[in-house]
Each structure stands twice: as C-alpha cells, then as structure tokens.
Design brief:
about 35% helix, 9 strands, 6-stranded mixed beta sheet, 8 helices, Hypothetical Protein, Haloacid Dehalogenase-like Hydrolase, Chain: A, domain 2, globular, alpha/beta, Rossmann fold, 3-stranded parallel beta sheet
Length: about 190
C-alpha cells in the first residue's frame, strides 16, 4: 500500500556520521541487507540471519540512487548505541523517524514510516476506525502503532514505558502472548 524510503543522499549523511562511531552501519533495500564495513561485526551477521536475508558487502561507489532504501540501522553493543545517541546530530531527529527497538540497534527510516503510520494506512484502506484496530507490541518501535490502535496489547515482558500504553497486557513473547491476546480479545467475542 505504501513504501516510504530514504534517499541516497540521506544514507550518505548517515554513513559520514558512522565514521565517528564504533557501532556498525547497515542498510536495507527491498531485497537485501548491506554493509559498507569491510569487517562486519557479529551482530550484523546475527541480524541478517534473524531476518532471513544475506548480509551483502557493498562498495560505496556501487551505491545507486535507484536503490529503494527502506532503512539504515546501526548495530553494536548497548554501550556503543548509548554513545551513538549522545553523538547523534539533533537534525537527524527532524530528518528521519529514529527509533531504538532493542538495546543493540538504532534505526533511521523515512520520517513518515513508523509502524503507527503503516497501521493507519492499512486501517484506512480497509475502512476501519482506530477503535476497531488491535496492535500488539513490546518495544519503542511499537509505540506509534500502540498509540493509534483502539486496542493496544502489550507483552508482559515489554519495556515499562510501553506497558503504560496498554489497554491489555498479554503473556510474554516466550509464552505465546500473541496467541493468548487473540484468543482472549478476538476469538471469545
């Protein structure tokens, strides 16, 4: 329904900033996960495996404005990401939708590409009002989606600030919390 991307020039800005950081930069198009780093850290390989994609080493000269860049992301240990946040130019928050979904990453997306905006586009295409929409989440990158949905389901192992958004707290990720929420809130009604 919608594909909001970041521009090549924006990626180059992030790449320039990455040279001052220990956390490593990766970025995605609609097919692959890329890195410019000649020695990718273990987190890059682990994330590629988690996402069922291949980590592709690309040379800066091979970057093209034809690439549909979905997002850029830094991966590093939590102290490296903490430092990145201290060093991050404030203008990046105006230019991108920036979010840290877990302790070891920080993401840059198109300004309008939050999960909440995506859920809104989907709901509107189905003629659903927010009060008739359920969202399930557990991390900071789920905030806008949970704020949009009339039924904000949060995993019991979610961050406390995300739990504060809940209209219903379900079981943890490891205890089939999504299935439990669907059974309790959808299938029993």
């Amino acid at each position: 329904l919608s594909h909001l991307t970041i521009e090549l020039e924006q990626l180059k800005e992030i790449e320039k900033f990455s040279k001052t950081q220990k956390a490593q930069l990766t970025f995605f198009d609609d097919k692959k996960m890329y890195t410019l780093h000649p020695e990718p850290n273990k987190l890059l390989f682990d994330d590629a495996k988690l996402l069922h994609t291949e980590l592709t080493l690309i040379d800066k000269k091979d970057l093209s404005s034809d690439m549909l860049l979905t997002k850029a992301m830094f991966l590093g240990d939590s102290t490296e990401i903490d430092q990145l946040l201290l060093d991050l130019p404030p203008s990046f928050y105006d230019e991108f939708y920036c979010v840290r979904s877990v302790s070891y990453n920080f993401e840059f997306l198109n300004r309008g590409a939050s999960k909440g905006e995506a859920l809104k586009v989907l709901a509107e295409s189905l003629n659903l009002k927010p009060e008739n929409v359920m969202a399930i989440g557990d991390a900071e990158n789920d905030r806008s989606m949970l704020e949009y949905a009339g039924s904000a389901v949060v995993m019991e192992n979610a961050l406390l600030e995300i739990q504060a958004l809940a209209t219903f707290v379900t079981k943890s990720n490891d205890n089939d919390g999504v299935a439990f929420a669907i059974e309790e809130l959808v299938l029993t009604k």
